[in-house]
Amino acid sequence: MAVLSTHIDPRSKTFRANYAGMLEQTNRLKEELAKSRAGGGEKYVKRHRERGKLMVRERIELLLDRDSPFLELSPLAAWGTEFAVGAGVVTGIGVISGVECVVSGNDPTVKGGATNPYTLDKSFRAMEIAARNRLPLINLTESAGADLPVQAKIFVPGGATFKEITRRSAERIPTICLVFGNSTAGGAYVPGMSDYVVMVKGGAKVFLAGPPLVKMATNEETDEESLGGAEMHSRISGVSDYLAEDELDAIRLGREIVAHLNWRKLGAARMQAPEDPVYDPDELLGIGSLDVRRPFDVREVIARIVDGSRFEEFKTNYGTTLVTGWAHLCGYPIGIIGNNGILFSDSSQKAAQFIQLCNKIDVPLLFLQNITGYMVGKQYEQGGIIKDGAKMINAVSNSTVPMFTVMIGSSYGAGNYGMCGRAYDPRFLFTWPNHKIAVMGPEQLAGVMSIVRRQAAERAGQAYNEDEDQMVRQMVIQQIEQESNAYFATARVWDDGIIDPRDTRTALGIALSAAFNNVVKGADNFGVFRM
């Protein structure tokens, strides 16, 4: 494969402006992530420590293999809402006893680790990642159960938690539950459904109803230890498989359980020795633009994330608004599809063919998404843009190789779908801080609504208020700007996290390695391609 050339001039005005703007955005990202890592605040952190307990991220760090990375998922869930940033749970992928696992840990300093609607969304996403990539799931449990004021929003969908645990077990994907504190009411079924359960002596409390509710329901007097303590469940009920002396012992036991799983990756690939890109990933800050209307060459991004900056481009001179080709990333073979402008009929056809080819040779796909949509207008409608765009979406929808998406700019309209947006089940989806996502750009959307209002007034024979139109336009633009930014999207778990552009290769490398725990096999069938 040829090494990609670069046309970036770090001394240029555009590069320096992009770099400064993106650096400011990455600094803001660090500040927002710090809010998530602060837990419930100084008061509740202090109280937790006074009880002799470890913080959730300390538990995770001790659980993971020494000096191994941890890819945290959805760290800014619930950002900008009434709930704490991070949604009171930490999820991610890490290596435990040499095995890649999904780890999910309640943060008891945030409302006692209670579950709110965003906690549920984030936890379900982690469970989905475990299922699709065939990764053992480790639950670090200490939760007060449902956040009762919002119970109506979580009770019914929350029941799927237990269904998914037992389905994974049936698929030979184990769930290991380390219980450090409360796991009560419906939450008692988390250890109850798990393959392996470790409970901390004097700390774990697992029961369907606590002493006050038991008193109300049956008039029985009891205490927490005899009702649901770790020793009772280890010696009498059998809910616990291992009795840990303390938190460190529980973590040791968790590592030992993973070590005996006899875990093997099922995915096969013709690997190459990983090789750093030729070009400095730090330059990614100067390539991406905060103004997503300003184009940049996606090859410059590819050159800074793939092994040796080598890229075998496919159909270089056809459908030039889309770049397609093969590379290796952290040693894994991968097919790459990246936007270099709007999607026309030829670029859509090119994408469909390339996706089919990658499925024929069992090679994963990476979508680098910076797209305003498919081309519109009479000429393009008559030329078949709908059926050609449909070919691309057909191919994406029926592709069965692992697919990964990084949103490096805009993501508007059906372009989001064709370039493997969240609705198309990418194994992992990350965004850069400059990312924008919406049906269309704010100005375009406001303009369309203005035209519709004007036409309605004309049909009714009414005078059109231009001043009111301008006011409404500005309100719409402001609303769409707010609802299309990266933080609004990540708060709702539409992605797996905002990442520093310089960390793109690392995040993708961990995600690729995780995906190869499962079988990697391309599709044998696609839907009908409208010719």
Question: Care to describe what's here?
Answer:
The chain has 531 residues and is α/β, with parallel strands linked by helices. Helices cover 41% and strands 17% of the residues. It contains 21 helices and 15 strands. It has helices at 13-37, 42-50, 56-63, 117-133, 151-158, 160-170, 189-193, 211-218, 224-228, 230-237, 247-259, 284-287, 298-302, 345-360, 378-382, 385-398, 415-418, 442-459, 466-483, 486-491, 504-515; strands at residues 70-73, 89-96, 99-106, 137-143, 175-184, 196-200, 205-207, 242-244, 312-314, 322-329, 332-339, 365-371, 403-412, 428-431, 436-438. Strands 1, 2, 3, 4, 5, 6, 7 and 8 form an eight-stranded mixed sheet that branches. Strands 9, 10, 11, 12, 13, 14 and 15 form a seven-stranded mixed sheet that branches. Strand 3, helix 4 and strand 4 form a beta-alpha-beta unit. Helix 4 runs parallel beside helix 6 (160-170) and helix 14 (345-360) runs parallel beside helix 16. The longest helix is centred in the N-terminal third of the chain and has 25 residues, at 13-37. The relative contact order is 0.11. The mean pLDDT is 94.
Secondary structure elements and pairings:
Elements: H1 13-37, H2 42-50, H3 56-63, E1 70-73, E2 89-96, E3 99-106, H4 117-133, E4 137-143, H5 151-158, H6 160-170, E5 175-184, H7 189-193, E6 196-200, E7 205-207, H8 211-218, H9 224-228, H10 230-237, E8 242-244, H11 247-259, H12 284-287, H13 298-302, E9 312-314, E10 322-329, E11 332-339, H14 345-360, E12 365-371, H15 378-382, H16 385-398, E13 403-412, H17 415-418, E14 428-431, E15 436-438, H18 442-459, H19 466-483, H20 486-491, H21 504-515
Parallel strand pairs: 3-4, 4-5, 5-6, 5-7, 6-8, 11-12, 12-13, 13-14, 13-15
Antiparallel strand pairs: 1-2, 2-3, 9-10, 10-11
Helix pairs in contact: 4-6, 14-16, 18-19
